[in-house]
Specification:
The protein has a nine-stranded mixed sheet with strand order 3-4-2-5-1-6-7-8-15, sandwiched between helices. A four-stranded parallel sheet has the order 12-11-13-14. The protein has helices at about 5-15, 20-45, 70-85, 115, 120-130, 140-150, 265-275, 295-300, 305-315, 330-340, and strands at about 60-65, 90-95, 105, 130-135, 155-160, 170-175, 210-215, 225-230, 235, 240-245, 255-260, 280-285, 300-305, 320-325, 325-330. It contains ten helices and 15 strands.
């Protein structure tokens, strides 16, 4: 499948955002305008011009300041699993990027369709088995979740670090190997807001706490780290597993790896690192829906994909295999998280 102009543009910007070259300098005036708009947006909430609404639960927002995926969804799932191990009642909210009806508020079920609820919320629901709600605004999603599950103690927001309308008790900012790139804001650089991030002070409210988590192998600055590795097995559509080392045996079809994520090359690199002989790779746009995925592309191949892509890909290629990501934040991260949640300055959860 040939690259689209959007994919070529995205790759070009990602390259430009690694340093302050000609493209970054040309886009810098637009970056200043974006920075001004960002500042005005934050100021409106800080001054109380725009309302910040609270919900009757502890809110943890997981997001990033760098455009593109950095590991937010795996972080959300790791957080949920840790909090559940502490016997806390947890729910997740999301905007549900790419939904067919983005204005609706829905509870995500394990048998929901990805085009209705979004691929990432569906993955979170199936993996964690906690309540997940999607809505155009996080406040609406949170209130719907709490109305349906009033025993919920903690609401984890998947993305939304710049969505200040929902009050948060704790922020988790996720970075990968890109760090902050060239340290310029969009479109001259990858930043959605300046870094270091300054908490949003509001009249009569304390400043939210911030934890930084690095999901890459080369942390650029202080923060906690997480180990990322692929499992040694893949999952079929029916939930059964197949060992990856059996895919290299004689008689097996050649392997085609596909990924519709923010950084598909990272998935391909991880597959190669475990010695899977990939005959071909296919980098697709983030949140690719696979409706137009042509059969002649993958016939004759054994397809390997990410868990995020699997729910959509299985609709057109039911024999595809999804390789789970094993994601483990440093225990010190959870120690800091628990200490923050138990702080007398915030809501106590235990």
């Amino acid at each position: 499948m040939p690259d689209t102009w959007q994919q070529r543009l995205q790759r070009g910007l990602l390259q430009a955002w690694t340093h302050r070259g000609l493209v970054s300098h040309l886009l810098w005036p637009l970056s200043l305008l974006y920075r001004l708009l960002t500042w005005m947006h934050r100021l409106a909430y800080a001054l109380g011009v725009t309302q910040v609404r609270r919900v009757p639960a502890v809110v943890i927002v997981v997001g990033n300041v760098v455009a593109g995926g950095a590991g937010k969804t795996p972080t959300v799932m790791a957080l949920v699993q840790h909090l559940r191990a502490r016997n806390l009642q947890v729910g997740v909210i999301s905007r549900g990027y790419g939904r067919a009806e983005p204005s609706s508020c829905l509870e995500v079920q394990t048998d929901s369709q990805p085009h209705s609820v979004g691929d990432e919320p569906l993955l979170i629901r199936r993996t964690t088995q906690v309540p997940v709600f999607v809505a155009p605004t996080r406040y609406v999603a949170a209130m719907a979740l709490l109305a349906r599950y009033p025993q919920t103690q903690i609401v984890v927001c998947d993305d939304g670090l710049q969505h200040y309308a929902l009050y948060r008790d704790l922020e988790v900012c996720v970075f990968d190997d890109r760090g902050i790139g060239n340290n310029r804001q969009l479109p001259a650089g990858p930043l959605r807001e300046p870094w270091p991030r300054t908490p949003l002070a509001r009249a009569g409210q304390r400043k939210e706490r911030l934890l930084v988590l690095h999901t890459g192998s080369h942390p650029a600055f202080a923060g906690y780290t997480a180990n990322r590795a692929l499992a040694n097995f893949a999952t079929r559509r029916d939930g059964t597993q197949v060992a990856l080392d059996t895919l290299t045996q004689a008689g097996e079809k050649p392997l085609l790896a596909v990924a519709g994520i923010a950084q598909p090359e990272s998935f391909f690199a991880m597959l190669r690192a475990i010695s899977l002989p990939l005959v071909q790779t296919m980098a697709l746009p983030d949140h690719y829906d696979f409706h137009s995925f042509p059969h002649n592309i993958y016939e004759g191949y054994r397809i390997i994909c990410t868990e995020k892509d699997a729910a959509k890909l299985w609709l057109v290629a039911p024999d595809a295999l999804a390789v789970p990501l094993q994601f483990e934040p440093d225990p010190a991260f959870f120690t800091a998280l628990d200490a923050t949640l138990s702080s007398p300055h915030g809501h106590k959860t235990s």
